[in-house]
Amino acid sequence: MEGSFFMNKNNLSIIKVTGLEMNFNLRKILDNISFDIKNGERIGLVGYNGTGKTTLANILTGKLAPDKGVIEKSPELTIGYLTQSIDYEGSDIFSIDGDLLQHSSELGLKKVYEWEEKRLNHLSGGEKLKLALSNVWASKPGFLILDEPTNHLDFQGIEWLIEELQKFKGPVLIISHDRHFLDKTVTRIFEIENKKINFYNGNYSDYQKEKQHRLETQIHHYEVQQRKKEEIEMQMEQLSSWSEKAHRASTKQGRDFGNKEYHRVKAKKRDAQVKSKMKRLQSELEKNKVDKPLEETKVKFEFDTKGNRGKRIIEAKSVTKSFDARSLFHNSHFYINHGERIGLIGENGCGKTTLIKMILGETPVSSGELWKSESLKVAYLSQDVDDLPVNKTALEALGFTDRENILKARTLFANLGLKEQFITKPIGTLSLGERTRVKLVDMLMKDYDVLILDEPTNHLDLPSREQLEKTLNEFAGTIITVSHDYYFLNKLCDKLLVFENQRIQRVEMKPDEYFNKTKGTEPTDKKETLMIIENRIATILGELSLIDQKNPKYPELDCEFNELLKQKRKLM
Length: 572
Prior knowledge:
With 572 residues, this protein is of the alpha/beta class. It has four domains: 2-194, Rossmann fold (3-Layer(aba) Sandwich), CATH 3.40.50.300; 216-286; 312-519, P-loop containing nucleotide triphosphate hydrolases (Rossmann fold, 3-Layer(aba) Sandwich); 524-571. 44% of the residues lie in helices and 21% in strands. The strands form four sheets. Strands 6-7-8-4-9-10 form a six-stranded mixed sheet, with helices on both faces. A six-stranded mixed sheet has the order 15-16-17-13-18-19, sandwiched between helices. It has a four-stranded mixed sheet with strand order 1-5-2-3, with no helix packed on it. Helix 7 (204-257) packs antiparallel against helix 8 (260-286).
């Protein structure tokens, strides 16, 4: 239900949600959640896949009606909503106005209005996303909701979006699994967990630190409570035992010495005292009860790899690739050694996926030589999750018939968060993230020397991305990856193949070193200032978590925290 516009005295709230509940197929997704979004806030909405992030976005935009709850918002509020599912047809381009053309050009889509309808009907995922983003931007919204806005965007597009969001004065709600993007754009985190919303100040990195701090604090309080509980239960047991002994002694004394009534009254009085103490202890047991901390589901990946098959495994000499009259890259020289982690960097359409297909032997070189070791076993995780057999179940798609491999596959599916009911359903009914997991399991079940990963973090939630990074770092073979997830690339890759000016160049740098060099290295004093600010932010977050909002120190610390966030954003 939608209510009236809400305003408090200090800040303007453009949306206020109270007691919201949502169910799907008798399963509760959101349970009695309440929050408000103030003008100018930048909020990151995070949580495991399937926890209701997109559902909440659809409720806020009015696309879905909640089962219970009140949503109050300004009647003049215009919402720009970028959905995950984007589908542009060729005819859509003819309704595009000048503002959209300007934004699409800034995103790297040059002369979009000159494209023929045939070209428009075969847009790539990245091009569709850029046009959709431009369309949202051109509508001049008062409130932005972006659902996975960096999916398929190249680094140029991501940087453009970060800069535009920093200029945007209205509130923004971002659903994203891109940690670098969240760190650069948000100042508050809403985390959906166990059907509720937890609130955190700061960007994604601040949220991770504060979440860990809260967990450690809860574990400490829970352990103290458990020790206290054991003490109280022991006292209650002693009281109960003492009461029973006293009853037996009282009955015996009544029989032995007469005067049963006197001993009965005395026993009754003693019972009342025991019951009073027991009640007090029980009340103490229930007071300030701390729930047992929930252990986060650990997503596990495992690889079996063989030893070194030779140092140089791939080498390109004067490699050129053209389609018709269009040259993707020409006269390029590079090599890849065993055990290296290579990131492919370049704008969308520069030929990264084409190079992968050339390495896989699916596309020939136009000229030059691309050599690879004949003994290599290569695994390929593509962007396309629609190439799976939609009528087969996940288990059937793997093709294993022996009990040992089936049990191993079930274990891997469980470790990836796919429960039994999902792996026995047709793949066509699974979500994009679930299909990605099916492809990952297929890759994990086999022995490979080289892993080629094309946007491997697409459709994976944040915990799955972080666990994948850890596991890939333990992989003994070679990794070649295309990814627009800055954090993923930086944690994994130690070398780069850079696609620029129609050439492929090997660069002996990690991604952050390369990007800093191309942008201009930050001065040392700037880095030191940033480190000091981040340390102070961590300290304040710790202090805020330990005091009540009514504490006189709270507003002072909160004000300092927000000021530090502003300084941090200027330096980043």
